[in-house]
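ARCHIVE CARD
Drawer: 12
Card no.: 0347
Subject: one protein chain, sequence and derived structure
Cross-reference: see card 0346
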Amino acid sequence: MYALVEFKGKQYRAEKGAALKVDRIDAEPGSRLDIDSVLLLSRGEEGAGVTVGTPYVPGARVSAVVESHERDKKIIVFKYKPKKDYRRKQGHRQSYSIIKIEDIAGA
């Protein structure tokens, strides 16, 4: 059983017991989280028992627990214009949260 959920503007495939890497959430590690915006719900084998929402599946919910907060590796953003002596170097580290899917409840 799996569900496609929309969370903070992005779509994820959520399976029971799976860990998802999502944009940082303002919640303490160990706190519970319910996601109501379920776009698709599959209840069995591939293609069997699939419910597609318009845009969301009514009554479907995904429960998760916040595991930890981490930061990704640094990327370098470098902009330049040739022959104009224009160079800008900037580093960035994206913050993210790891959430673990506990349960998928469907209508």
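Annotation on reverse: The first strand starts at residue 2 and ends at 7. The radius of gyration is 19 Å.
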